[in-house]
């Protein structure tokens, strides 16, 4: 019995894994195992022999079973230790920069101008890109026969014969949001509306979809002087050039009276465009005092309230600020272009944190 004991305890101690342990168990204490067979021999013994051999065999069986159980736990612990050693993960390592996206210049500039106008008390308004021709034209004092409708190269939505709903267009400018904001908020109000607009036009400086930001301020005692100050503040902050010069040229829009187009100072020396220096001028927006008929269309009494409005090309000022020569590239989705002109996703522009880095 001492031989059996040292044989099996030795094998158990040397077992490399659970499968080996199971083989040992079957050989020792399984139904036909060596210890079990010995126990069957108890019946052939004399009562005296049995009294000695019985308890000794039982004790041996117990000892082997508990050695098997202890070894099983030890093997499990070792297996877990081994897994922990080989499968560790350093969570303090930085993420892999593969497939890192960038922010499109139009989105970047939209964030920048929103931060600047928010600082001056303008909130962001939105309107639909598909709008009725009433919002896009009539309410803005552009009646059906007005040449401005043709000038804007409008995309009209198809209507089946017999469909009597009002005609819808892809909005040709963000100005319909003036009307929607006046209806919704009443006076006084101060909003900007950045967003996409559509015109059937395509060359180096025109794409069928582009972006504008509308501005509208309605209050008592609003004048062109307020408009001029707001725009000059904006350009100084946006181009990060103090005292950048602007030029207001008398112009005409059906929805403003008087109207002005605004240019910013630039130079073209050596074929290179530089903003804020030299004696050249670059047109960047249309503006004026909101026409009384437009205030009335928005449900605001023109006897009591005045306002100024402006509409500026976002893609245009993005090209100027970041030196991007071709507007069409904005919408090509060329990854090399996006990586070159894109911005880091986590640098949100603020006036105190810096607009662009
Ligand atoms: N909506 C005009 C355009 O698209 C710009 C504009 C807006 C002019 C507001 C005056 C006032 O050209």
Automatic annotation (TrEMBL):
<feature type="binding site">
    <location>
        <position position="257"/>
    </location>
    <ligand>
        <name>Mg(2+)</name>
    </ligand>
</feature>
<dbReference type="GO" id="GO:0000049">
    <property type="term" value="F:tRNA binding"/>
</dbReference>
<dbReference type="InterPro" id="IPR006195">
    <property type="entry name" value="aa-tRNA-synth_II"/>
</dbReference>
<dbReference type="GO" id="GO:0000287">
    <property type="term" value="F:magnesium ion binding"/>
</dbReference>
<dbReference type="GO" id="GO:0005524">
    <property type="term" value="F:ATP binding"/>
</dbReference>
<dbReference type="Pfam" id="PF01409">
    <property type="entry name" value="tRNA-synt_2d"/>
</dbReference>
<keyword id="KW-0460">Magnesium</keyword>
<keyword id="KW-0479">Metal-binding</keyword>
<keyword id="KW-0648">Protein biosynthesis</keyword>
<dbReference type="InterPro" id="IPR022911">
    <property type="entry name" value="Phe_tRNA_ligase_alpha1_bac"/>
</dbReference>
<feature type="domain" description="Aminoacyl-transfer RNA synthetases class-II family profile">
    <location>
        <begin position="107"/>
        <end position="349"/>
    </location>
</feature>
<keyword id="KW-0067">ATP-binding</keyword>
<comment type="similarity">
    <text>Belongs to the class-II aminoacyl-tRNA synthetase family. Phe-tRNA synthetase alpha subunit type 1 subfamily.</text>
</comment>
<keyword id="KW-0436">Ligase</keyword>
<dbReference type="GO" id="GO:0004826">
    <property type="term" value="F:phenylalanine-tRNA ligase activity"/>
</dbReference>
<dbReference type="InterPro" id="IPR004188">
    <property type="entry name" value="Phe-tRNA_ligase_II_N"/>
</dbReference>
<dbReference type="GO" id="GO:0006432">
    <property type="term" value="P:phenylalanyl-tRNA aminoacylation"/>
</dbReference>
<dbReference type="InterPro" id="IPR002319">
    <property type="entry name" value="Phenylalanyl-tRNA_Synthase"/>
</dbReference>
<keyword id="KW-0963">Cytoplasm</keyword>
<keyword id="KW-0030">Aminoacyl-tRNA synthetase</keyword>
<dbReference type="GO" id="GO:0005737">
    <property type="term" value="C:cytoplasm"/>
</dbReference>
<dbReference type="InterPro" id="IPR004529">
    <property type="entry name" value="Phe-tRNA-synth_IIc_asu"/>
</dbReference>
<dbReference type="InterPro" id="IPR010978">
    <property type="entry name" value="tRNA-bd_arm"/>
</dbReference>
<keyword id="KW-0547">Nucleotide-binding</keyword>
<dbReference type="Pfam" id="PF02912">
    <property type="entry name" value="Phe_tRNA-synt_N"/>
</dbReference>
<protein>
    <recommendedName>
        <fullName>Phenylalanine--tRNA ligase alpha subunit</fullName>
        <ecNumber>6.1.1.20</ecNumber>
    </recommendedName>
</protein>
<dbReference type="InterPro" id="IPR045864">
    <property type="entry name" value="aa-tRNA-synth_II/BPL/LPL"/>
</dbReference>
<comment type="subunit">
    <text>Tetramer of two alpha and two beta subunits.</text>
</comment>
């Amino acid at each position: 019995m001492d031989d059996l004991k040292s044989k099996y305890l030795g094998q158990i101690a040397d077992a490399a894994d659970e499968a080996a342990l199971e083989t040992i168990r079957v050989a020792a204490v399984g139904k036909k195992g060596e210890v079990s067979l010995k126990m069957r021999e108890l019946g052939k013994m004399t009562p005296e022999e049995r009294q000695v051999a019985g308890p000794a065999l039982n004790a041996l069986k117990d000892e082997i079973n508990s050695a098997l159980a202890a070894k099983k736990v030890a093997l499990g612990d070792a297996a877990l230790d081994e897994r922990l050693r080989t499968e560790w993960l350093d969570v303090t390592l930085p993420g892999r920069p593969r497939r890192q996206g960038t922010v499109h210049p139009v989105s970047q500039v939209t964030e920048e101008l929103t931060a600047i106008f928010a600082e001056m008390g303008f909130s962001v308004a939105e309107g639909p890109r598909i709008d009725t021709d009433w919002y896009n034209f009539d309410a803005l004092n552009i009646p059906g026969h007005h040449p401005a409708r043709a000038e804007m190269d409008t995309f009209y939505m198809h209507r089946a014969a017999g469909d009597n709903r009002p005609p819808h267009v892809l909005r040709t400018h963000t100005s319909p949001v003036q009307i929607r904001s006046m209806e919704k908020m009443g006076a006084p109000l101060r909003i900007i509306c950045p967003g996409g607009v559509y015109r059937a036009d395509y060359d180096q400086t025109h794409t069928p979809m582009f972006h504008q930001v509308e501005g509208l301020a309605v209050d008592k005692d609003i004048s062109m002087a307020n408009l001029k100050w707001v725009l000059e503040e904006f350009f100084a902050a946006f181009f990060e050039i103090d005292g950048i010069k602007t030029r207001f040229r008398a112009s005409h829009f059906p929805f403003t009276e008087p109207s002005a187009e605004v240019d910013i100072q630039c130079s073209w020396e050596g074929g290179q465009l530089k903003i804020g220096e030299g004696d050249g001028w670059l047109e960047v927006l249309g503006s004026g005092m909101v026409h009384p008929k437009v205030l009335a269309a928005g449900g605001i009494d023109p006897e009591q309230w005045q306002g100024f409005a402006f509409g500026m090309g976002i893609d245009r000022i993005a090209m100027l600020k970041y030196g991007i020569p071709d507007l069409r590239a904005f919408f090509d989705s060329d990854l090399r272009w996006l990586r070159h002109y894109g911005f880091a996703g986590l640098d949100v522009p603020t006036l105190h944190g810096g607009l662009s880095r």
